[in-house]
Fold:
Amino acid sequence: MDWAITGGQVLHAEGLKPGTLALSDGRIGAAPAQGARRLDATGLLVLPGIVDIHGDAHERQMQPRPGVDFPPEVAMRDSAAQLLAAGVTTAFLGVTLSWEPGLRGIEAWRATLAAVEAMRAAAGVDLRIHCRFEADNLDALEEVLADIAAGRVQLLAYNDHTPAIVKRIADPAQAAKYAARAGLPPAEFVALAQRAWSRRPEVPEARARLADAARRAGIPMLSHDDATPEMRRDFRALGAAICEFPMSEAVAEAARAAGEHVVMGAPNVVRGGSHMGWSAAAPLAERGLVTVLASDYVWPALLQAAFMMEGRGVLDLPRAWALVSANPAEAAGLADRGRIAPGLRGDIVLVDPARRAPVATFAAGRLAWLSPDGAARLH
Ligand SMILES: [Fe+2]
Structure:
């Protein structure tokens, strides 16, 4: 079905302009097609659909209570509905592949990939897999290399949380906490961590193999939690050109100086600071040191963060919205979306600026989600 979205303020590269947006054959058209269905967007903003480069909020549907699993296909259907209602049209689900059993272990990895693949065609939102490979998970290396080669992974991040875990579990209280998360007795968890850690010398070669597989598959790579510009440089040498959650301004500056995208969390902007006690993302984005906001763990944070950035008075709406659309699309190598221009994917979100709330979401030219307000606007 073709669409004419009329009467709204449409976000183009130059800014907001009143006009009609046409969607035809899944793409943004130059003019409405004959017989196109009309949606009256008077008073609404017509924006490119949100591209989320990393979010793990699907985990809450997979495991609604700690240690309580829910059928992955149900969890994924619910996640897709939540994404569309948050204005997200491309979602890279951050799936951690760790040596820790449970939600971030190999079984959950397999179940998540299978669930996404089973519903991808019907999801509306373009669901993609962002593998967050935990450095010391060498037991899973061959499997993830095969998954990358088979085209089952669309982004690859280098996570490295084991050194901190090994340090913390020397304290029995901390060991008990980690063990509970993994559903293991504390002594068993400690033994597992130590076994993973004992293979640390093999990590550099594993990283080189992962990078080689990602390059062959043509998927972008991210480094995670870079503590120093030297770490950023080492990951750059591997081909990881996206810097995610830099741990200091110096790291972000080094990445930007090299023309790389820098990712921080949209919840950080919404909440006015990091839940991990790190830098506030908003002022860094205003200085151009952060170029992408990711949902991290809350999908609706993306839209809210973009409007909060605009509300702070430094970035205008086109620049604030680029943090959640054009920039993540570019970072992820998706040239066909993130902006409004003829020929690009028909990924559009209509937003009521007064309520900062989505009203309708179009994905690949199809009406994929509609609020009650939006339903009253159909003609
Ligand atoms: Fe981290």
Q: What stands out?
A: The mean pLDDT is 96. Residues 161, 224-225 surround fe (ii) ion (CB under 6 Å). Residues 1-48+337-379 form a domain with the Urease, subunit C; domain 1 fold (CATH 2.30.40.10). The two ends are 13 Å apart (CA to CA).
